[in-house]
C-alpha cells in the first residue's frame, strides 16, 4: 500500500505540478504569436499528433511515454474495467470504483483546448538551477498564480507570500509543523479538524510522530470538553469540505489552516474571496466542467434506503449568478437501521466501492463516493446506483452504459501553434549570453524577453559588467545546454494539454 501511494505521489508530482503549471498559465494567459515554417520542432509536433491519433476506443489513452509492445509500438493504457489492445472490451462484473478521485476527470477540458494547451518543450529548456534574477522559484509563475486567484475571485493574495509545494499534502504537513509549538519544554500543540474530515490530516500528523504536535480529533468534541480557549490548537478547516462539500468555518478560532483544494467555481459557488493568513490551494483540481457530476441527486431522490448530503444554492461571484454546488464527492448515508456498514451494503448489493465513514471520523453508516474520475468511471457508477436504487421496490431499471468517452479525434493541426511558438521564443537573440523561455520573463506587452546569464545585462544580454566576479562557488546544469541545442530536433517534446492527467501509469 505504501508503495502504491508513493507511485501516486510520484506521478502527481510529474503530471500535476511540472506540467499542469505550464498548461494552466498558458491557457489562462494565452500564448504568443505563431506563424512561419517549422524546423527543429516539427518532428516532435508530428510525433505528438501521431500518438494522439492512436485509437483506444475512447476508454483509454496512449502517451508519448507509454509502454511499447515487442515491435516497439505504443500500447493503449486502458481505463478501469476496460481491456483489449484498443481498450474496447468492458468487463461486466468490474466494480464501480468510487473509492478515490483521479485528476483524469479533467482530461476532456484539456482535449477541448488542444491547440491552446499544447506546449513544445525544447531539449535545452531551463537547464539552470535558477530563474532570472530570482534563485530557484519563478516570479513569473507567482505572478500568474496571483492573477488567476484575482480572476477567479477565490482568494485575496495581496500582501501574502506564495509558497510552492509538491502536492498539497506536503504543504499541509509543513503548515502543521510551522504553527505548532517548537518548544520541547512545553506540551505539544493539539491538531484538530471537524468531523467528517479528510483522513490525511490525521494520517500525516500521526505519521510524523512529533513531540511538537499531536492529533486530537474532532473540534466540536474538543470544545465541549475544554472550557478554556487559550489551549494551543492548530485547526484544519476544509472548505468546501472533503467528504461532504460544506463550506466550513473555523470552530476554535485559533491557529487555522484553510484547505481550499475544492474552492473553485466548478465545485462550489464562490460567495467571496477567501481572506485568511494561511490558505492552501492545489492545481490538481483547478480546471473542470461545472454541474455535470451531480446527476445522482435525481437517482437518490427516489430512494428511501439511501440519502445524500443536501446542497444549498449560493451566489457565485465568478459566474455572477446563484447556483448549486457540484461537489467532488457524494456523502451517502444508509437510512435503514440495520444497515450500519454502508460501504459493505454498497459493495454487496451494488458492486460499488466507496470509502467508509469511519475514515473521516464519522459513523460507518456513511460512505464517500468519489465523482471525480474518468467519464467511464462516472457512468458506471451512475448505472450501478440506478440499479441499486431501483431494486428497492423489487423492479430493476437499467440505464444504457452510454456513449461518452473522449475520443481521440483531434484536428491534425492542433500541435502547430505550440511548435511555432517554441521556435519563435528560441529564435529571440540574447547574444549567446542569455536565453528567452516560453515560461520566462515578459515585457510590458507580454513578449518573452532575454534572461541574461550572470555578468551580462541589456535587452539582448550584450553588455558585460567588467567588475562582475567570476562565481565558481557552485555548479549549474546549464553547462549541458550546448549538447541539447545540438540535438534540437530529437530532444524536443510536444506535450498535449491532456498529457497524463491520471494519478497512475498503465497498470500501476
Ligand atoms: C518554552 O516554553 C517554556 C515554558 O512554557 C518557556 O518558559 C520558554 O520561554 C519557551 N522557550 C521558547 C524558546 O519559546
Ligand atoms: C468528553 O468528556 C466526557 C465527560 O468527561 C466524556 O464522557 C467524553 O467521552 C469526552 N469526549 C471525548 C470526545 O473525549
Ligand atoms: C419505493 O416505494 C416507496 C413507497 O411507495 C417510494 O416512496 C419510493 O420512492 C420507491 N422507490 C423507488 C426507487 O421507486
Ligand atoms: C451581475 O448580474 C446582475 C444581474 O443580472 C447585473 O445587474 C450586474 O451588472 C452583474 N455584475 C457583473 C459584475 O457583471
Ligand atoms: C487539556 C484538556 O482538557 N484537554 C482535553 C480536551 O478535550 C479532549 C477531547 O474531549 C480531551 O481528549 C483532552 O484531554
UniProtKB/TrEMBL annotation:
Q: Pfam families per the record? A: Alliinase_C, EGF_alliinase
Q: Does the keyword DNA repair apply?
A: no
Q: Which GO terms describe its molecular function?
A: carbon-sulfur lyase activity; transaminase activity
Q: Which Gene3D superfamilies match?
A: Aspartate Aminotransferase, domain 1, EGF-like, alliinase, Type I PLP-dependent aspartate aminotransferase-like (Major domain)
Domain of life, per UniProt, equals Eukaryota
Task: Write out the GO biological process terms.
Answer: amino acid metabolic process
For activity, the cofactor(s) needed are:
pyridoxal 5'-phosphate
Keyword tags? Aminotransferase, Membrane, Pyridoxal phosphate, Transferase, Transmembrane, Transmembrane helix
Q: Where is the Alliinase EGF-like domain?
A: 39-94, 413-468
Annotated transmembrane regions: 7-29
Instruction: Tell me if Transferase is a UniProt keyword of this record.
Output: yes
Q: Which residues form the Alliinase C-terminal domain?
A: 96-296, 470-504
Family label: Belongs to the alliinase family.
What's the protein called, per UniProt? Uncharacterized protein
Amino acid at each position: 500500500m505504501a508503495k502504491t501511494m508513493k507511485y501516486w505521489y510520484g506521478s502527481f508530482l510529474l503530471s500535476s505540478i511540472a506540467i499542469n503549471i505550464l498548461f494552466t498559465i498558458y491557457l489562462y494567459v494565452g500564448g504568443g504569436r505563431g506563424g512561419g515554417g517549422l524546423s527543429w520542432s516539427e518532428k516532435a509536433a508530428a510525433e505528438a499528433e501521431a500518438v494522439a491519433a492512436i485509437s483506444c476506443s475512447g476508454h483509454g489513452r496512449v502517451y508519448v511515454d507509454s509502454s511499447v509492445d515487442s515491435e516497439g509500438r505504443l500500447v493503449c493504457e486502458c481505463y478501469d474495467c476496460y481491456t483489449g489492445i484498443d481498450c474496447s472490451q468492458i468487463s461486466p462484473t468490474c466494480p464501480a470504483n468510487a473509492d478515490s478521485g483521479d485528476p483524469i476527470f479533467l482530461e476532456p477540458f484539456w482535449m477541448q483546448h488542444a491547440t491552446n494547451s499544447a506546449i513544445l518543450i525544447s531539449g535545452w529548456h531551463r537547464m539552470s538551477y535558477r530563474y532570472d534574477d530570482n534563485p530557484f522559484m519563478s516570479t513569473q509563475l507567482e505572478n500568474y498564480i496571483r492573477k488567476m486567484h484575482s480572476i477567479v475571485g477565490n482568494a485575496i493574495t495581496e500582501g501574502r507570500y506564495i509558497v510552492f509545494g509538491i502536492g498539497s499534502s506536503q504543504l499541509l504537513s509543513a503548515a502543521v509543523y510551522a504553527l505548532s509549538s517548537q518548544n520541547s519544554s512545553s506540551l505539544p500543540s493539539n491538531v484538530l479538524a471537524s468531523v467528517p474530515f479528510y483522513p490525511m490530516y490525521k494520517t500525516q500528523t500521526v505519521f510524523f510522530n512529533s513531540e511538537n504536535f499531536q492529533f486530537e480529533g474532532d473540534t466540536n468534541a474538543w470544545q465541549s470538553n475544554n472550557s478554556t480557549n487559550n489551549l494551543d490548537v492548530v485547526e484544519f478547516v476544509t472548505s468546501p469540505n472533503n467528504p461532504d462539500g460544506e463550506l466550513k468555518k473555523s470552530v476554535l478560532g485559533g491557529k487555522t489552516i484553510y484547505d481550499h483544494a475544492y474552492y473553485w467555481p466548478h465545485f462550489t459557488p464562490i460567495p467571496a474571496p477567501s481572506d485568511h493568513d494561511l490558505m492552501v490551494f492545489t492545481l490538481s483540481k483547478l480546471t473542470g466542467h461545472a454541474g455535470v457530476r451531480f446527476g445522482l441527486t435525481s437517482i437518490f431522490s427516489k430512494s428511501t434506503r439511501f440519502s445524500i448530503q443536501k446542497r444549498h444554492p449560493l451566489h457565485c461571484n465568478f459566474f455572477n449568478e446563484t447556483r448549486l454546488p457540484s461537489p467532488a464527492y457524494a456523502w451517502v448515508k444508509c437510512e435503514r437501521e440495520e444497515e450500519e456498514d454502508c460501504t459493505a451494503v454498497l459493495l454487496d448489493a451494488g458492486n460499488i466501492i466507496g470509502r467508509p465513514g469511519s475514515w473521516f471520523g464519522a459513523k460507518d453508516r456513511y460512505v464517500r463516493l468519489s465523482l471525480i474520475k474518468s467519464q467511464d468511471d462516472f457512468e458506471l457508477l451512475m448505472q450501478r446506483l440506478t440499479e441499486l436504487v431501483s431494486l428497492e421496490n423489487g423492479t430493476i431499471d437499467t440505464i444504457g452504459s452510454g456513449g461518452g468517452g473522449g475520443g481521440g479525434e483531434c484536428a491534425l493541426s492542433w500541435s502547430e501553434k505550440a511548435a511555432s511558438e517554441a521556435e519563435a521564443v528560441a529564435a529571440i537573440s540574447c547574444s549567446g549570453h542569455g536565453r528567452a523561455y516560453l515560461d520566462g520573463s515578459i515585457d510590458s506587452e507580454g513578449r518573452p524577453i532575454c534572461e541574461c546569464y550572470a555578468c551580462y545585462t541589456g535587452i539582448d544580454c550584450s553588455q558585460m559588467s567588467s567588475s562582475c566576479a567570476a562565481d565558481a562557488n557552485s555548479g549549474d546544469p546549464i553547462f549541458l545546454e550546448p549538447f541539447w541545442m545540438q540535438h534540437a530536433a530529437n530532444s524536443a517534446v510536444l506535450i498535449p494539454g491532456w498529457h497524463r492527467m491520471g494519478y497512475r501509469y498503465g497498470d500501476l
